[in-house]
Design a protein that fits this description.
This protein is α/β, with parallel strands linked by helices. The model has no long low-confidence stretch (mean pLDDT 95). 59% of the residues lie in helices and 13% in strands. The protein is globular. It is built from eight helices and five strands; from the N terminus they run E-H-E-H-H-E-H-H-E-H-H-E-H. Bound molecules: thymidine-5'-phosphate. The site of thymidine-5'-phosphate has 11 residues, from helix 4.
Length: 213
């Protein structure tokens, strides 16, 4: 597979959508073929699973939630991500398995071993090449979340839940500094995007030298 998988992560209110578009545009300007997609979602079946997962008021056990995330991921990898990587495209994915560790592991308290097991079955060794973790202080996330008035199943969670999710994301970034690049998303947008551009420049030049080895 000659393509690259770049994932964008972060808790609610970090400015994921705007910055995801920035990443995709930046790569297109470098002449890459870019596929923008998201999890849970990205295929008709996975989008249906997404609507179950996000439906406000829907009662789901944490284990069911995790299994649905991986069911959506399985079909998304098979139908969208792997074919794109085989074509040599650059896939920019709004969230991926780090979100399962952060939300279902950290947020819901599910055992990491269960997530590890599903990950190895579903991903068969496929990992993101680069993950951009957008981080803001809890207060900023809370303000933005409340202002937006989001009401999906996750947005309806309380501060303590998102505090655990954020802590899990930061643990992942600390454990895998090569793959996961932390970006301070509380700064004004041009400065956030400058940080992202630097991450991408470094990544693209490393990816280029790898291809020519
Ligand atoms: P978003 O894509 O609009 O941010 O919404 C997706 C929600 O799903 C978000 O609250 C995080 C959550 N999520 C998980 O809990 N686990 C996962 O593995 C993924 C991909 C997303």
């Amino acid at each position: 597979m000659n393509g690259r998988l770049i994932t964008i992560e972060g808790i609610e209110g970090v400015g994921k959508s705007t910055n995801l578009e920035f990443v995709a545009d930046w790569l297109r300007q470098q002449g890459k073929n870019v596929v923008v997609t998201r999890e849970p979602g990205g295929t008709p079946v996975a989008e249906e699973i997404r609507s179950i997962l996000l439906q406000p008021g829907r009662q789901l056990s944490s284990e069911c939630e995790l299994l649905l995330m991986f069911a959506a991921r399985a079909v998304h990898l098979e139908e969208v991500v792997r074919p794109a990587l085989c074509r040599g495209d650059w896939v920019v994915c709004d969230r991926f398995t780090d979100a399962s560790y952060a939300y279902q592991g950290g947020g819901r308290g599910l055992a990491t071993e269960m997530i590890d097991e599903l990950k190895s079955r579903v991903q068969q060794g496929l990992e993101p090449d680069l993950t951009i973790l957008l981080d803001v202080p809890m207060e900023v996330s809370e303000q933005r979340r409340k202002k937006r008035g989001g009401t999906d199943r996750f947005e309806a969670e309380q501060l303590a839940f998102f505090t655990r999710v954020k802590a899990s994301y930061l643990d992942i970034a600390a454990a895998e500094p090569e793959r996961v690049k932390l970006v301070d998303a509380s700064l004004p947008l041009p400065q956030v995007q400058q940080q992202i551009a630097t991450v991408l420049e470094n990544f693209v030049s490393d990816a280029g030298s790898e291809l020519h080895k």
